[in-house]
């Protein structure tokens, strides 16, 4: 469970970086990482953070809102990544890696912007 927004972001970066490198699914994460997210809402530290802090799902202010799209909307990298859950063909696995990379990149950009604002 993430106690702060930054902890939720860091855990999300850990998850999506692994998925970018491997093309695998969340349940294939290393055990110590998967155990951190397995009981979270949507197995997502950001969703869990919003729920834990009485902000509902807080999708409107979610860091993973990309090009105005929420993660469950058609065209969002997460929705497309999730649709490839059982991918076995090399081209599909490559696409999963690219989509996971977009999510990881968005999270890292947010972290960088937040860090720069502090200094």
Features:
119 residues, single chain, 0% strand, mainly alpha
Question: How would you describe this protein?
Answer:
By secondary structure, this protein is an all-alpha fold. It has helices spanning 5-22, 31-37, 45-52, 77-83, 90-118. It is built from five helices and no strands. Helix 1 runs antiparallel to helix 3 (45-52) and helix 1 packs antiparallel against helix 5 (90-118). The chain starts with a helix and ends with a helix.
Short synopsis of the structure:
This protein has about 120 residues and is mostly helical. The chain has helices at about 5-20, 30-35, 45-50, 75-85, 90-119.
Write the layout of secondary structure elements.
Blueprint: H1 5-22, H2 31-37, H3 45-52, H4 77-83, H5 90-118
Relative helix content: 55-70%
Number of helices: 5
Helix and strand content put the structural class at mainly alpha
Largest sheet geometry? none
- Beta-strand share of residues: under 5%
Count of individual beta strands: 0
The secondary-structure element order is: HHHHH
- As a whole number of angstroms, the C-alpha radius of gyration is 14 Å
- Overall shape: it is globular
- Give the overall average pLDDT: 90
């Amino acid at each position: 469970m993430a106690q702060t927004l930054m902890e939720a972001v860091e855990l999300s970066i850990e998850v999506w970086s692994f998925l970018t490198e491997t093309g695998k699914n969340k349940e294939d994460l290393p055990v110590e990482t998967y155990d951190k997210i397995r009981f979270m809402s949507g197995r997502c530290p950001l969703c869990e953070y919003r729920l834990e802090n009485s902000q509902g799902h807080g999708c409107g202010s979610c860091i993973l809102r990309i090009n105005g799209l929420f993660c469950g909307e058609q065209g969002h990298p997460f929705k497309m990544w999730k649709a490839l859950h059982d991918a076995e063909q090399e081209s599909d696995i490559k696409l999963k890696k690219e989509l996971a990379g977009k999510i990881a990149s968005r999270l890292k950009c947010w972290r960088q912007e937040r860090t720069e604002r502090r200094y």
